[in-house]
Design goal:
Elements (H helix, E strand, L loop, with lengths): L1 E5 L5 H9 L6 E2 L2 H4 L4 E3 L9 H7 L4 E5 L10 H20 L2 E6 L2 E6 L7
Parallel strand pairs: 1-4, 1-5, 2-3, 3-4
Antiparallel strand pairs: 5-6
């Protein structure tokens, strides 16, 4: 599994599509789709993702998650809880990932693993 993180509009999905040769039609947007498609974009919308089930069904998936823990802390307790849940999910995923990359201004930074081993 590969985890790609980064802020909104930093080029995460474009980068993955360019590196892998996959198309937009091969991108999942729900956990159910992610069990059969090679890329799952929008992981941050699923903070209670059952990563065991997903990774059992699709161990080589590329997960894309927006960083939501930076910036102004929300006043709303539910928004703060969501940010914490997404952050904890990303920590668990990063620990299991073969590679973790962060996109910033369209530039990839390898945080874990070898970025030269794309498909």
């Amino acid at each position: 599994m590969i985890l790609i993180i980064g802020g909104a509009a930093q080029g995460k999905l474009d980068y993955v599509l360019r590196k892998t040769g996959y198309t937009a039609q091969q991108v999942a947007h729900t956990p159910e789709e992610a069990e059969r498609l090679p890329i799952f974009d929008g992981v941050e919308h699923w903070p209670h993702l059952d990563e065991e089930k997903l990774l059992s069904a699709n161990p080589s998936i590329i997960l894309i998650c927006a960083e939501v823990g930076c910036g102004v802390v929300p006043v709303d307790p539910a928004q703060r809880a969501w940010r914490e849940q997404v952050g904890r999910l990303c920590c668990r995923l990063a620990a299991r990932a073969e590679r973790v990359e962060r996109m910033f201004c369209g530039l990839p930074m390898t945080l874990k693993g070898d970025s030269s081993t794309w498909n």
